[in-house]
Amino acid sequence: MVTVHAAWTVTNHEKRYEEKEEELSMSRVYNFSAGPAVLPEEVLKEAAEEMLDYKGCGMSVMEMSHRSKDFQDIIDEAEKDLRELMNIPDNYKVLFVQGGGHVQFAMVPMNLMKNKVGDYIITGQWAKKAYTEAKLFGTANAVASSADRTFSYIPDCSDLPIDENADYVYICLNNTIYGTVYHELPNTKGKTLVADISSCFLSEPIDVSKFGILWGGVQKNVGPAGVAIVIIREDLITEDVLPGTPTMLRYKTYADNDSLFNTPPTYTIYMCGKVFKWLKKMGGLEVMKERNEKKAKILYDFLDESRLFRGTVEKKDRSLMNVPFVTGDEELDALFVKEAKAAGFVNLKGHRTVGGMRASIYNAMPIEGVEALVEFMREFEKKHAK
Ligand code: PMP
């Protein structure tokens, strides 16, 4: 009886879902949000299909015990696929950690500051916040900065005044707000390199072996908010953490328990796993890189020739993921954001510290979205360029 009832409900749901499907995809906008951000439509549809009944379990992944075999398979498979996509060497652990980026700002010094010294390269707000947080635990040195020109470039990092006692050198690889990216890694003079890769996670291949820690909040390129994925070289996972470091803020707790010491954000991990599968299906990170370069070029080429809009970043340091631009007139910027929104291009307002506009064009933004945006910008230019 119960089974019959469940089958009826699911069938009915499917029917309603099919009816709504066309309407649903029709009403989706082009979402240029910096994060949480656009996810692949295919992934969202698959998750919707599995919402009520995950692979015949009769329940949603949200309702499932994190100790169940079904969830164990989900997290194991997610890790396996991520390792494959990023070609992560065997001497690195993959940890799924709660608390997002800000918790990593604290976990890095708490776990790595043996000499109580961290060197930071300040290329934007997120690097600065990490630096400020590190000061709670020891000496944080700002060894380079691009604050003098509103973080519109990456400073020369070939010969930095690295502290001989530095436990690590910290960078934010892609600066979400300002739209810059390191095309060359800093010379750390032999010190461990730690990188925040939140806004360029899985956008192109990366040589993991050059880093001690790579961490990224998943809410931009990988999944819904709720997890930071930490890729950490095993020798950096020790008991020797700062005194008073809580259990949940020790990398070792996650490493020793395969990220299941306590209840993890199960649904976020499941969605990340789906995005990893999507990326594999798309052809992996080399293909994503080509695709992202193509998308960014469409926008940058237009900005470079536009009589109204211009990019705010030094060309050599431009990000493939976050593209800030302005008209030079705040009122016109506001009008553009408003009209763009009405036309279905949403979340284009720049960060409050930069103003203007910012288009975040993560993996899941289709090329058609960028083409359509540029077309819209062209029309706006025709009306407003002097
Ligand atoms: N690092 C980068 C590069 C970010 O873009 C952000 C925020 N979007 C953060 C860190 C902070 O992340 P969270 O909001 O998860 O703390």
From TrEMBL:
Catalyzes the reversible conversion of 3-phosphohydroxypyruvate to phosphoserine and of 3-hydroxy-2-oxo-4-phosphonooxybutanoate to phosphohydroxythreonine. It is found in: Cytoplasm. This is Phosphoserine aminotransferase. It catalyses: O-phospho-L-serine + 2-oxoglutarate = 3-phosphooxypyruvate + L-glutamate; 4-(phosphooxy)-L-threonine + 2-oxoglutarate = (R)-3-hydroxy-2-oxo-4-phosphooxybutanoate + L-glutamate. The gene is serC. The modification N6-(pyridoxal phosphate)lysine is found at residue 220. Its cofactor is pyridoxal 5'-phosphate. It comes from Clostridium symbiosum (strain WAL-14163). HAMAP family: SerC_aminotrans_5.
